[in-house]
Amino acid sequence: MNDVLYSVDDGVATVTLDRPEAMNSLTVRMKTELLEALNRASQAFAVRAVLLTGSGRAFCAGQDLNEHAANLEAGRGLNDTVREHYNPIVRTIAEMGKPVIAAVNGVAAGAGASLAFACDLRIASEKAKFAMAFTGIGLAPDSGASWTLQRLVGPARAAELLLLGEPLDAARAMELGVVSKVVPAGELEAAARALAVRLAQGPTAAYAATKRALAFAADSGLGEALELEADLQDACAKTDDHLNATRAFLKKERPVFEGH
To answer: Does domain 4-200 have CATH number 3.90.550.10?
Structure first.
């Protein structure tokens, strides 16, 4: 990989978008490498949490417009990048059976913001800024933004952000619930890693079940949600983590989760 860095430590896979000279804007190669890295993290048993971030002063500025403009001039339009690249990336993040944290270190625009929205948790530098830049260049939202953003801030606020495209600074993003924590720029890496390690030391199967329950309940009736909860609880009750945690609780000890 050249444009996406991948490393594993303490059960955390860190995936770093690494085109700082281009604000980590997404080319075909970078999108391909990102999907490969996310699939690698998803399939590795040793990985129990994923941290997604960017190098330099941006998290991700979205689609690389030089590549996009070349496709337009050649009559290729979007070159099917939404279906071929963005959709699989977002589904891999959202459906991964492990928690995914976005450490938003700077600008997150367009598809870059959408990637952060698809993650389970977002922690931001005080220098972070989110921009729904789609309508500004005559496009509709993609990469799941129409689905994720309204679940974060509500339908009315999502419509405002997507239609007007006005950027959110870190403080406003925190106020609206887009991010769960804002920290000084120099503290972001340590704070995000501490959160990722905490999740990596937790009950991985229970986290996967929680992600599945939340996604299902967002589009289901109460009865259906209750039924899935029952199924998921039955499955979690059979895990070693649940059995060992219950024993530890009764002994007034701190549980140690092994992820199975």
So the answer is: no
